[in-house]
Structures are given as structure tokens and as C-alpha cells.
Design goal:
The protein is of the alpha+beta class and about 80 residues long. The protein folds into 2 domains: about 1-35, no CATH class; about 35-78, N-terminal domain of TfIIb (Single Sheet). It contains 1 helix and 5 strands, in the order αβββββ. The longest helix has 14 residues, at about 20-35.
Length: about 80
């Protein structure tokens, strides 16, 4: 059985709903949210856990730090 979400990725759960432009924008934001990043404290490369909007936690060292709403480290924060 072939995979149906090869092109749309994480936005495949919406199917044909909500329009292609909105699905593409949502996909871009969610891919940045769940990407592997380096912890600013311990240096391990993991997927950070979002506790609340702008508050992130490293699952390895347990450090809680502030970041962006949808990404742990923003361009302005660097």
C-alpha cells in the first residue's frame, strides 16, 4: 500500500480541507516546531518539548528556557 502523504507531510491529516495555502503555511510552522535542535545548555541534539507558548524544556537535561512560540531558538534570540 502506497503512502498518501509523501508530498504534504504532516499536513496530510487534513486531507482536502482548509485550502492548499493554509495547509502549506501550517506545515512549515509545524515542521520548524518538531525539528531536531541543539539544546543551548547541554548541547545535545534532540526534539525539544514545548511546555507552553514560548516556554521549552530539554528532555535530556530538563532545563526550562524561553524561546519562540513555535520554535525553541529564534533568529533574534541567537
Amino acid at each position: 500500500m502506497a503512502r498518501r502523504t509523501k508530498l504534504v507531510g504532516i499536513a496530510g491529516r487534513f486531507g482536502p480541507r482548509y485550502g492548499s495555502s493554509l495547509r502549506k503555511k501550517w506545515k512549515k510552522v509545524m515542521e520548524r516546531r518538531y525539528e531536531v535542535v541543539e539544546c543551548p545548555y547541554c548541547g545535545s541534539r534532540v526534539v525539544m518539548k514545548r511546555i507552553a507558548i514560548g516556554i521549552w524544556q530539554c528532555p535530556k537535561c530538563g532545563t526550562v528556557f524561553a524561546g519562540g512560540a513555535y520554535q525553541p531558538v529564534t533568529a533574534l534570540g541567537k
